[in-house]
Amino acid sequence: MANKPREVVWQALYTLLLTANYPFQIQNVGQGRDVRAWPDVTSAQQPALFLQQGPETADQGTGGDLRLGLNRWIWKGNVWVYFRRDNQTIPATVLNEIKDAIDNVIMPQPGFKQTLAAQNNRVPLVTNIRITDFMMDDGVLDLVAGQCLLKCGLEILIGS
Length: 160
Description:
The chain is an alpha+beta fold and 160 residues long. The protein is built from two helices and four strands. It has helices spanning 6-18, 91-106, and strands spanning 48-59, 72-84, 128-142, 147-158. The longest helix is centred in the middle third of the chain and has 16 residues, at 91-106. The model has no long low-confidence stretch (mean pLDDT 88).
């Protein structure tokens, strides 16, 4: 698989994330690639979803094959979701629904790879995407505003 321009991949991933079945309507569509700290996102701008690019690493060769070949890239990123808790819901329930929504859109069919082909006229952009971790806060960081947040770590594999 030839390397695709990074911006094409990241935009396709952001588009995919917006299709997830979240328990609410995302308010910051179109701005979610410009990550902001949660205190800078007002209540009116939430729920908000941001996609943050992270480090990129490369290696060559697999297993016992020490010959140099094409780079296999692993790009890391984070999905950030901010929302304000209300008195009607248990924040952990909403956080679980968000995790399920992201999990289902990244891995729509267990055992199949997420290649972003659906966002690219059925032509794969990447070899696979996987979730690496979830971290969250159910409003303890800011009890006054009831600020909740979730971070989902991702790895994007380019090449074999």
